[in-house]
Amino acid sequence: MREFFKAFLDVHFKKPVEVSQSYVRDLLILSLFLDYFGLDNPLGIYALDLYPYLLEEFHLWHKTLGMEKSGLDFLPCC
Amino acid sequence: MLLKRLVFFGGKGGVGKSTLSCAVALRLSKEDKSLLVSIDPAHSLSGILGMPIGHEVKKIKENLHALELSAERLVEEYTERVLNSLQDLLPHVRSGLKEYAKYLKHSPTALETAILDHLLDLCQDYAYVIVDSAPTGQMLRLFETAHMVKGWFDFLTRLAKEREKVQAFMGKRDSLLSLIEERKSRVERLLNILREKSLVFAVANEEPLSLEEAQEIKRSLRDMKVYIVLNRWRSMEGDFIKVQEAERPYGIEALEGLKVEGIVWVVKGG
User: Fold this and answer.
1) Exposed (0-12), middle (13-18) or buried (19+): which is B254, by Cβ within 10 Å?
2) Interface contact B104-A45, CB threshold 8 A
3) How many Å separate Cα B224 from the centre of its chain?
4) Does A52 map to a domain?
5) B219 and chain A: CB distance < 8 Å anywhere?
């Protein structure tokens, strides 16, 4: 019963909040992956070791952009 | 921190930046532990000091070390380090990052941030760090990059904070914010040094174009202390530090004969 209640909360209250805030994730990923768009990344060398942490996030992101494959050789997430 | 002063020499090509950097570094090494570092991609320290100097720190004499920094090598070393520290990476991710690192070497911003990041490390071990920098445009861009990276990190920190809130709400942990803040604090430390401990000597000759360029440096770097130095001075009068002309001031002995007291006096806090 308790389990059910928690799942109910997650789906009906928590999930919508996460979805409504997904623009934060999108903007963050966009800012960290400027190279993806052929723009010079202002972070220079500071970004490289962040990428492995963001792999999963990046995967979700390009899916929401409507791209099935990342198309990015250096981040082969799928 | 040991550092007393971080000194930059800039100006038009061929005015004698490198020669003055060497002479001033030699003089300052008599006071305290000093490092002479060239960040001009076309290095000239070896020729001026009359001994081979490379990418590794080399001892020149008591209290004086020198190196000719290669930005490309720094980027390579950085990617090496990152890839080694990520041992648990999946093999296809590792090879992908390696591929990306190849492109990194050709990004001007990457090369500049690599230099800035390394300068911060070098500043830890010396009292005086004397930087022989690239000609005007490139030097100004280096300082702009430092500020730009800071601004960019501010923006990213704000975003990452927002994201952390969402993640916490969803009961997920998030390490991105701390990773970004760690990097941001390095950039901030460097900017602090640039603001509080740096001096820029804009070198010119009596030739009007070089003097104009030196004044341009002074105008562009408003929040830094900039002094104009007139190298190979003969007779011109004006608001600048004069260094008299000398015949072929190459090699340590000849460099020590160069009259750079005016510059040294300013560096020591005049």
Assistant:
1) middle
2) yes
3) 14
4) yes
5) no
A11 in any annotated domain: no
User: Could you tell me the residue range of the domain that residue A27 belongs to?
Assistant: 22-78
The number of distinct structural domains making up chain A is: 1
A14 part of a folded domain: no
pLDDT in tens, B68-105: 999 999 988 888 888 887 766 667 777 777 777 777 88
Interface of B with A in 158-217 (CB under 8 A): 159-160, 162-163, 166, 169-170, 175-176, 179-180, 183
Tell me how far the alpha carbon of residue B46 is from its chain's centroid.
Answer: 18
Note the pLDDT tens digit of each residue in B179-202: 889 889 999 999 999 999 999 999
Tell me whether residue A54 is in a domain.
Answer: yes
B224 burial via Cβ count (<10 Å: 0-12, 13-18, 19+): middle
Residue of B nearest to A15 (CA): B170
pTM attached to this predicted model: 0.86
DSSP A67: -
Q: Of chain B residues 17-76, which have a CB less than 8 A from chain A?
A: 74-75
pLDDT in tens, A19-76: 888 888 888 888 887 776 777 777 777 777 787 777 777 887 788 777 777 666 666 6
For residue A3, the distance in angstroms to the closest alpha carbon of chain B comes to: 16
